[in-house]
Amino acid sequence: MYSVFLWRKGFRKDDRANYFLILAAFGLHTTAMIDRGFSINSCPVHNLFEATLFIAWTIAAAYLVFGVFQRLRFLGVFASHVLFFMGVFALMPALDPPRMAAPDFSGTLISLHAALILLAIGSFGLSAVAALMFLTEEHDLKAHKFTAIFSLLPPIQRLERVMNSLLLCGIFLFTAGLTISPFLLKQKYGVWFKNDPLLDYSVFIWLFYLGLLTSRWKFGQGGRRFAWSTAGSFAFILLTFWGFLLLSQIHHP
Amino acid sequence: MNVVVIGLSHHTSPLELRERFAFAESKIPRALAELRHSGIAMEGVILSTCNRVEIYAATALPPAKAFSELTEFLVRCGGAAFAPVAEAIYTLAEPHSLKHLFKVACGLDSMVLGETEILGQLKDAYTLAHSHKHTGARLNKAFQRAFHVAKHIRTHTQIQRGSVSVASVAVELAEKIFSSLPERAALVIGAGDMSEKVARALLSRGVKNIVIAGRSLERAERVAREFGGRAVQFENWTREFGNIDIAISSTSAPNYILDRAKLEPLMKLRKHRPLLLIDIAVPRDIDPAVNFLENVYLYNVDDLQAIADDYLKQRKEEIRVCEGIIDEKVKLLIEPQVGPRAGAHLHVAPDSGGR
């Protein structure tokens, strides 16, 4: 809530209160992760719930390092929103299934597949953050607001470039992650392709992002529409991914 | 030894008076030598700029006596009669003199609040006096501390943040849109005084490619030569839109020379790269409706002035913060002196300082 207020103020100066709020949350988050880690006697990254929270923890840690520098402390306004939505996402049903007796380390391909897909989603998430920065600054510039030039946000052209690069990185990782899927299906079910809601959903997401990048390269699509598409598509992933994961027979046999 | 200040500035006197008292740089060392030999001051620094002429002196004389001698010295140097200038001259003793020095260094006493040029001028004045051995422990410490405080205030407050001139605001806007200004190209449509100022400000931030489109090609070519750019016929300015990123318009056309219908196809040629339009003309050259186009950012002179005013307002809001820091630093500077000897000076100061 405090970050929403800071956002409206226009990132005029670094805010220590926000930094310390995130620091306090980070402390509690670390305590909870250590507690969980001790209770299972291993690093708490075994399922999507734990993976999401681990990513949130690394984002908070990264921000706390960047936030040491006065000029970059405003990033906390964006980080706190991302962390909040990741927290909400992690609480969705079935992301934290009951634990097996011992962690299963047998599937190297599965781990690689999950890691690549998670990294891709992380990349899409970061591009969505850049898109939100872009939209905020673009709105202020269009409305001739004083905050447009007084804020600490980078130039919009640079933000657009960052969005593009992160999407490119995301689609590369997502493609790599999806390429492994047929091999996993062959390993487990003896087929190269199996109709599955999450698989169809992933292909749809891949096609959507590919379309987004193609429209940019081919038709020079940029600016506000590109930023809205980037932010909107990530919001769509956050809101729908868990649902398709629930429906998936492959991921929840 | 007490640090005192005597002088006149834009606050107390008009330019006609200030220019009579201005010291040429070459004459300052001799004036300082004269000041010291006369016994008025043990150490001295003369600051002479277009907005102020001030003598900073470390003197063993009681402040009241020092002020009258310094005023006489200043009047003699200015070749003026005492009576008409007496009201314009201000005198300050410690701690007000030190506070004033710090305020001057921080740009708090400047015509353009928070400007940084004065710090350079103050450093030059001090260096000149120091190189001719007219400063000693007292003024060295005071000036070094003033430079330190100016740096501290620049880093920790918003007093020097932003631009308070229309031309600089335009450049700041460009920096918020484009990731690198040196790679950008600017088009100046109709070379007027203000548009030239904006173009000059862009050049100072690294813009290399400037195109001038004027009704008089001869004048446009002259301006282009000055900016290291090139001139085009006024009728052909739209042809440049594919390559430029910033357009500054200040023609005397009675109607809009650029509207939405005209710009839309040009934006397609630009492959939707951002375009900053600065309309300085009155009446306006660019239809405000173009601001609704994606990737187009239009600012007219009122928009720029409003931003400059906001900056100034914000700087004014910071004055109190800066003064708080200065008070604290002045206290720290004079604190070690507080003792039986220094007490006499500090006692006199509040009554005699500040006119």
Protein described:
The complex is a heterodimer of chains A (253) and B (355). Chain A folds into two domains: 105 residues, no CATH class; 145 residues. Chain A has nine helices and no strands. In chain A, helix 2 packs antiparallel against helix 3. Chain A is flat, with a radius of gyration of 20 Å. The termini of chain A are far apart. Chain B is α/β, with parallel strands linked by helices. Chain B folds into two domains: 197 residues, 2-Layer Sandwich (Beta Polymerase, domain 2), CATH 3.30.460.30; 129 residues, Rossmann fold, CATH 3.40.50. Chain B is built from 13 helices and ten strands. In chain B, the strands form two sheets. A six-stranded parallel beta sheet of chain B has the order 7-6-5-8-9-10. In chain B, strands 2-3-1-4 form a four-stranded antiparallel beta sheet, with helices on both faces. In chain B, strand 8, helix 11 and strand 9 form a beta-alpha-beta unit. In chain B, helix 6 packs antiparallel against helix 7, helix 8 crosses helix 9 and helix 8 packs across helix 12. Chain B is elongated, with a radius of gyration of 26 Å. The C terminus of chain B is likely disordered. At the A-B interface, helix 5, helix 6, helix 7 and helix 9 of A face helix 8 and helix 12 of B.
- What's the CATH class of the largest domain in chain B, please? Alpha Beta
CATH superfamily of the largest domain in chain B: Glutamyl-tRNA reductase, N-terminal domain
Largest sheet of chain A: none
Shape of chain A: flat
The CA-CA distance between the termini of chain A, in Å, is: 40 Å
Arithmetic mean of pLDDT of chain A: 81
N-to-C CA distance of chain B: 21 Å
Our count of domains of chain A comes out at: 2
Element order of chain A: H for helix, E for strand: HHHHHHHHH
The residue fraction in helices of chain B comes out at: 40-55%
Strand content of chain B: 15-25%
